[in-house]
Design a protein that fits this description.
By secondary structure, this protein is of the alpha/beta class. It has 9 helices and 7 strands. The protein has a single domain, classed as 3-Layer(aba) Sandwich (Rossmann fold). The longest helix has 16 residues. The relative contact order is 0.18. It binds zinc ion. Zinc ion binds next to helix 2.
């Protein structure tokens, strides 16, 4: 479908950002053919069990996610959704009772106009047959994490950033928690802590991308 945007700017590939044809997909054939295998692992000493990411946070994928988060390209969620859903199905399975996400603060959401992880959760949920539930509230006083601080500092910076909206909604649930980018895992671990404290049975994490170590 063409939009006003297309009349002003040429349609560009979601991943490599090279111009694509005026109609149809926003994914060039080269990128469509080169979608990588998901990356996954288990996390020891964190408040979640397993994690999966659709791709590494580097090169074209990193630039793509930055456009998604900060460049107003909220529609990218529709493209990311199938890749993330595939990653979840392949590496984590489908045994989840509740789909939720790591929210941005209300202040940030107002400035940006959307919450990117909520959009991701909705796109993934449409494919997994689950409606995402907003379970966490993020305080606006918490600053986004900087890459210059070390792991311990990140963990203490993020401590207390989230509170549960409705404990009844998470009690006894096996939760799939969606986030955009996994860095140290401190943010999802803190979100996981709050969910587990509220009575969640388990927390597994699916992120769009993970930073290379
Ligand atoms: Zn491309």
């Amino acid at each position: 479908m063409n939009t006003i945007r297309d009349l002003i700017w040429p349609r560009r590939c979601v991943i490599c950002h090279r111009p694509v044809g005026p109609a149809g997909e926003r994914l060039c054939p080269a990128c469509a053919a080169a979608i990588p295998e998901p990356i996954s692992g288990a996390k020891r000493g964190a408040n979640y069990r397993r994690w999966v990411a659709a791709f590494w946070y580097e090169d074209d994928f990193r630039a793509s996610i930055l456009r998604f988060k900060f460049g107003g390209c909220s529609f990218y969620a529709d493209y990311y959704g199938p890749w993330l859903a595939r990653a979840v199905e392949q590496r984590l399975g489908r045994d989840f009772d509740l789909l939720t996400y790591v929210p941005v603060s209300p202040l940030r959401r107002r400035r940006r106009g959307y919450d990117q992880s909520r959009l991701l959760a909705r796109a993934v949920g449409a494919l997994l047959g689950m409606e995402p539930v907003s379970t966490l509230h993020k305080s606006s006083r918490h600053r986004p994490q900087s890459r210059t601080v070390d792991r311990e500092e990140r963990q203490s910076n993020i401590r207390g950033a989230f509170r549960i909206r409705d404990p009844e909604a998470v009690r006894g649930k096996r939760i799939l928690l969606i986030d955009d980018v996994l860095t140290t895992g401190a943010t999802v671990s803190e979100a996981g802590r709050v969910l587990l404290e509220a009575g969640a049975k388990s927390v597994d994490v699916a992120a769009l991308a993970v930073t290379p170590r």
